[in-house]
Hints:
Residues 5-10 have low confidence and may be disordered. The radius of gyration is 28 Å and the shape is globular. The protein has helices at residues 3-55, 75-89, 121-124, 151-154, 199-208, 211-219, 223-282, 287-312, 325-335, 337-342, 361-377, 409-412, 425-428, 436-446; strands spanning 94-102, 108-114, 144-146, 162-163, 168-170, 173-183, 189-198, 321-324, 346-350, 356-359, 384-391, 395-401, 450-456, 460-468. The strands form three sheets. Strands 1, 2, 3, 4, 5, 6 and 7 form a seven-stranded antiparallel sheet that branches. The chain folds into four domains: 3-41 and 206-250, no CATH class; 59-201, 2-Layer Sandwich (Beta-Lactamase); 255-312; 321-468, 2-Layer Sandwich (Heat Shock Protein 90). Strand 5 (168-170) and strand 6 form a beta hairpin. The protein has 14 helices and 14 strands. Helix content is 49%, strand content 19%. By secondary structure, the protein is of the alpha+beta class.
Amino acid sequence: MSTSSAEQKIRLPFILAVLVVVGIFLAASVQYVRVLRTMEREVRERLRSAAAVAAMQFQGEELEGIHSPEDMEKPLYHELVDRLDRIRSGIPDVKFAYIMRRAEGPYTLEFVVDADSFLSEEEWDENGNGIIDPEEEPSYPGDPYDVSGIEAMQHEAFERATVDEEITNDQWGAFISGYAPIRNGAGEAVAILGLDMAAEDYMRISKSAFSNILIILFAVMTILFGVFVLVLTWIHRMNTLREVDRERSALVGLALHQLGTPLAIFRWWMEIVKEKYGDLICKETDACKQLEEGIALLQHVYNDLQQAHTVHSRRLSYSMERASLGSIITREIEVFSKKLEQKKQVVELEIPKDVIMQLDSKLIGAVVNELLENASAFSPPETTITISAQRRKHDAVVSVQDHGCGISEKDMQYLFKEFMRGDDAYKYKPMGNGIGLFVAKNIIEGAGGRIWVESKEGEGTTVSFSLPLSRKK
């Protein structure tokens, strides 16, 4: 055997080994970058959801009397600060929580409430130098804030829950922030709630799950390592998603607790007023009617939050029974008939009588009610809503079609996301909260079906869902 031939036999496996190692390294590096970006998106989604739930705990009318430092003496301001501080304390790694409203000019907001308003000078002096530095200064009601370099705070934060696309810098440091609108009784966004996470904490959370992977990446140079990276990445992703769900569920639970008690008190006093002063107040004025409508709206928000909490807690249980799909739809139309009459809308039914199947009539009825309510809200008066059903080989399909405003392509991506609404949704349904379709999707998918939307802006929308004729055990 010649020397050159022997060298070739040695060189070839060596080259192949190097190529394999380099290939594995590059593949693992690409996967690392991809999943790191996914982790960053998950952290940002956590901030967005936290801001959305937190904003629902404030009413726009509460902020009307807060405009200057003199208003900090009001009991209401103390209560708002305490509420904001409790929210911040319940969300890990959030450093600042505040409420701002629009001021003069498109790029200037003003502070309304800051969770740190009543800290002592010692607490403000974080570096302990005995001086309140610019980055340690508190914010007071009416203080201006320049948002010319923060795109999310200029418009989008007043429309829907959102989060900064990039890390922002101001006198208090570098942060990634989540925002959500605070609305008044008419559904108008009068302020925004902001939650700030320090940039170093954001990067630490985003990267913390991968420190072990980097060590293994340089230690194990085999094909098995690539598989290991993929599996480990999946596990970390699932853990992060579970953590996001846990925190989101805790925030919704907090909102339920804070809303449930005053709602019960309102109802109790409403009954007392009607019983003792009904002739004087209820018959001669609209006070009782307005109070009952307000309580009904609060109850609607409470019920939606409770449903979302049930979905997040994975406590959604199905009581399956053999039932007529047509009967369930007809029942929900009867329940909704008064609202249809108010808008002079008509429902046309195209439902065969033989669609008998195993389902949870209460949960599926709630889905039909949500779709019917949306079709009515987003359609003009004196229009027709068509509800049709068809039996197929393995499933049944229900469709709710309206001839309303339709949905833009931009807003289609937000339809089934929790606490997300389209840009024009508040014009037609001011008291909506972006929970109904999220819950409906989970109900349908939990029953083994699927839900989808077809829409053309300005012409109308059709929402359809399918259910299996027999549920697999």
